[in-house]
Hints:
Layout: E1 5-9, H1 20-61, H2 70-99, E2 105-107, H3 109-118, H4 121-127, E3 129-136, E4 141-143, H5 145-161, E5 170-178, E6 182-189, H6 196-199, H7 219-230, E7 233-238, E8 244-251
Parallel strand pairs: 3-5
Antiparallel strand pairs: 1-7, 2-4, 5-6, 6-8, 7-8
Helix pairs in contact: 1-2, 2-7, 3-5, 5-7
Amino acid sequence: xxxxxxxxxxxxxxxxxxxxxxxxxxxxxxxxxxxxxxxxxxxxxxxxxxxxxxxxxxxxxxxxxxxxxxxxxxxxxxxxxxxxxxxxxxxxxxxxxxxxxxxxxxxxxxxxxxxxxxxxxxxxxxxxxxxxxxxxxxxxxxxxxxxxxxxxxxxxxxxxxxxxxxxxxxxxxxxxxxxxxxxxxxxxxxxxxxxxxxxxxxxxxxxxxxxxxxxxxxxxxxxxxxxxxxxxxxxxxxxxxxxxxxxxxxxxxxxxx
Length: 257
């Protein structure tokens, strides 16, 4: 098996008590990011809306055209609506991460994974993907549970989208190790993988690196933004045909910080 090539996106934030000017700069940066994201999303939503409008007109025309199957048109409308819903969910995640402070508390890693995997059980079954995980949590983990769920939800969803249908055995593995001052996480799949030039762009907003992409290219951007807020970092190890591993680290915070 070929060695996977890493791409490192380091989002470490030095933990210092913010000055008033630093806080103002941080707020301005957040506002600018939100404005840019909203502007980009508004353009991304126009495409699906135009598609739905065209499909509705096509559906009306089907009444006079017996060769046009209304069910096929309705299926296309349903897919487009789901794409819009996905983008709106990602918009909600981005805004929540930008506006809300960290909420630190003791987190049950097993519970987090149970909740996240509940979102994907149907898709895993439909595509024949097996899921396994290993959790070493001898130390208590203090972090923002909501943001951790957002990270896992996007990474696992990404692994499902880019599974390799040609492989008889399709797998996703999640590993969690909690230490005194930090926690290490891994999401590994044996999917289609990606070349190094794609790895360097996957955290860019609206980047879609493959024809197999079904979303709007927002999920991994949100992962990076969330990790930036949490003071974490993420690495990507991947090669075409060899699968992909996302490895990320976050601080293990105490409740009195």
